[in-house]
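Exercise 7.
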Amino acid sequence: MLPMHQMQDFATPLTGGDTAQGNETCPGETLTVLNVAYPLAPVGPDAVGGAEQVLSMLDRALVQAGHRSIVIGCRGSSASGTLVEIPAENGVLDEAAKSRAQQAHREAIAAARARWPIDVVHLHGIDFDAYLPDDGPTLVTLH
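Solution. The predicted structure, written as tokens, is:
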């Protein structure tokens, strides 16, 4: 688990693919996916929300297939890949809390994209438009 301000370079080469599933990759090629969770709910296999559980399963599958998965989630999240933690909002989840969390997501996305060669940003939050990157390949899943 990495706080955003302590991101380190993970230079371990990843290779793989799952030919049995039809997900072939060329040897030496990897995909780096930046999975971005809803900012107000922790991600993990035991998360309360279905979207957070789906993101967790996707993260685990990417890592098992030899790809790099980077997950941006609030404190309390867990990931099989690299977790970039943003502060969790405590107390009343009002518009001010939501705005702070969305700003933290925007900053974390920019920092991750500057740090790692991201192939695709995959947004899972219903409020994705508040931190949607201006450029680069982006996928939005509405759970």
